[in-house]
Amino acid sequence: MTVQHMKWWGWGVDGVAFSHDDKPSLAPFVQKVIDVDLNAPAVAPLAFEELDVPKSQLTEDLEKALSGVLGAEYVVSTDLDRVVHAFGKSLRDLVRIRASDLRRIPDVVVYPADEEQIVAVLDAVVAADAVLIPFGGGSNIAGSLEAPADETRQVVSLDLGRLNKVLSIDEESGLAQIQAGALGPDLEKQLGERGWTLGHFPDSFTHSSLGGWIATRSSGMQSDKYGDIADITKALRVVQPGRTLATRAVPVTSTGPSVREMILGSEGRLGVITEATVQVHRKPAKRVVLGYFFPDWKRGVAAMRAIAASDAAPSITRISDARETSFSFATRKTSKGFSKFMSSALVAVLKKRGWDLEQMCLSFIGYEGSEEHVARQRKLVKKIVSDHGGIGVGEGPGALYDQKKFDTPYIRDFLLDRGALADVSETSAAWSKLMPLYDTTVERANKAFAQLGVKGWIMCHLSHSYHSGACLYFTFAFKAGEGDPIAQYDVVKSAVQQAFIDSAGTLSHHHAVGTEHSRWLGDDISEAGVQMVSGIFSVVDPGRNLNPGKIVQ
């Protein structure tokens, strides 16, 4: 088969990894902020042969039924395939899998070729009273792919990797019909060959699928221009027990509660998404990402708010707080990248302006469109940046951003190999709530580090701007102490998530609910909302055969 998977023990494919050898400032920085020695020997993951892989519970009857639909070649129950499909790529997932804590993994992995085969697979699963879990790229970090630990029924992982084609493009309407298993690079390549782009580039872009984006309500780095996946998705086809749901690709509709919206973010609980019709755009004539500095976080965030309220329409509005800015400086390569725009001359200018360089914040703002459009947007943004005390530093930082934008998960794995626990949490809130939310989250995280008796680090960037508010994306890290690393991680993760809820933020902006965030769902959408969601799941899937336990129990 041509379906490729990430490595079972970490992010990405074998042979690709993060290195600090050409980043001389990183090791001292990490030693200072979380007391981890990057030059110490790394702890390698277990060899696959050392894992205690539970035996498959696949019955002869179900195997025969699945093979009759797909052919024996596409019904796979090897230990490696089952382990690869057992988890996503959250810190919790990686710590457990490296410790051979596998619990309930799929009994079989199936690879259908089309919707007709998916219908037959789901029929066979329901008839056997088994469990079916859809699988796209395996990049989820919210627990959306894991079977319940106490699940006694057979578990089937349905890998959509063979459904990877752009089926058609309505060039007059800018609508593309795409199979749900298409990974980001595959669909962009197929669209790009005809001059189009989806414009959706999440951090997980390289290893995530269209169906996964829809099932988790994904956002991309350029969502300021193209919209989140909820805005991009215009129609869906979804295989459910005994039927297939289909919506029409219309720009707007008034047909009662939105069925399309119900499928968005449903994490496989309402069926298997087989294809979607999505809004696509002509590839822009010009694209540029520029770097800007602001004297502090408060003024930088205010500038992003002013841009969102203005006539400017950039594709990216991102700003890092002072902590994340210092981390970015620490990851620079020798005599390249940041050294060019952090020259002694620029430092002298900033100091002359009275800037405290330890409070300085780095921003990336992107522009796309015709030459004239980009020029006008840059002019509008330049004035807003200047009004808020910021300065432009050219294309160098933007080029570096483009080079590194998909590398963050590799850094997390690199740190984990050296005894550091690092993870992310993101939220969104109204502009009026954003700064108090930020302050509360940093304060709660630092209290959690103190509770654990560890030296910890939390940093943040504003990643997406909207008219009424923005997304804040936090990254935290600390050195694991003695004892259970998951229990230590839970102390910090829970503190951060509770800070979101207590500060009028949402439990997640784009990483989904899964099992990781489900305990806060009632606080976010109210208990009445939870009951409504549970009711919809029960009607569509009365036998709880579709990815049970996700979002709500």
From TrEMBL:
<dbReference type="Pfam" id="PF01565">
    <property type="entry name" value="FAD_binding_4"/>
</dbReference>
<keyword id="KW-0274">FAD</keyword>
<dbReference type="InterPro" id="IPR016164">
    <property type="entry name" value="FAD-linked_Oxase-like_C"/>
</dbReference>
<dbReference type="InterPro" id="IPR036318">
    <property type="entry name" value="FAD-bd_PCMH-like_sf"/>
</dbReference>
<keyword id="KW-0285">Flavoprotein</keyword>
<dbReference type="InterPro" id="IPR016169">
    <property type="entry name" value="FAD-bd_PCMH_sub2"/>
</dbReference>
<protein>
    <submittedName>
        <fullName>FAD-binding oxidoreductase</fullName>
    </submittedName>
</protein>
<dbReference type="Pfam" id="PF02913">
    <property type="entry name" value="FAD-oxidase_C"/>
</dbReference>
<dbReference type="InterPro" id="IPR016166">
    <property type="entry name" value="FAD-bd_PCMH"/>
</dbReference>
<dbReference type="InterPro" id="IPR004113">
    <property type="entry name" value="FAD-bd_oxidored_4_C"/>
</dbReference>
<comment type="similarity">
    <text>Belongs to the FAD-binding oxidoreductase/transferase type 4 family.</text>
</comment>
<dbReference type="InterPro" id="IPR006094">
    <property type="entry name" value="Oxid_FAD_bind_N"/>
</dbReference>
<feature type="domain" description="FAD-binding PCMH-type">
    <location>
        <begin position="102"/>
        <end position="283"/>
    </location>
</feature>
<dbReference type="InterPro" id="IPR025650">
    <property type="entry name" value="Alkyl-DHAP_Synthase"/>
</dbReference>
